[in-house]
Amino acid sequence: MTSIVRGAFLVAALLAIIPTRLGGQEENLLPHASPNVLGLYKAKDALQTHNPFRDPIAEAFSPDSRKIDLLDQAESFGQDYIRAAADLLNVYENLHCESDLVMMKPLLIDRLQLSSQLLSIDAQRPTILLGQKNLPAITERALKLRDDLLAAKSKVDAIAASLK
Predict the structure, then answer these.
(1) What counts of helices (H) and strands (E) characterise the chain?
(2) How far apart are CA 114 and CA 145, in angstroms?
């Protein structure tokens, strides 16, 4: 019995020590973040598609499985690019040394421009599907994803322009 208690204690201690990803709770972690950083996190969260009725087995055998994979991939890449831009912007805004700010600013502008270009490329992926015969749900998701990626791109462009 004591070995079970020790094991449970060890597992609880490991779970407390190992950091976990809090996806979607960045706002709680960044109470002093700027509106730009929080806006990028909201744009990232807007890309997230929640479908509690999703059936991976049915999707695998669906004739539209490649279309679904393309949309999932564009969504995932877009979230990654936005998260990287938001994290780098947050680091920049929390620097206090003037020489660090001067050194970091060109890098931040370059990375924001790169993120903007990558978001533009990913926004074009869903438009490939719009010229094909699709189920209405796939067309709707492709349009929403394209619009969300373009909105995130415009936010990143605005932030980069404000830094110049």
Answers:
(1) 7, 0
(2) 20
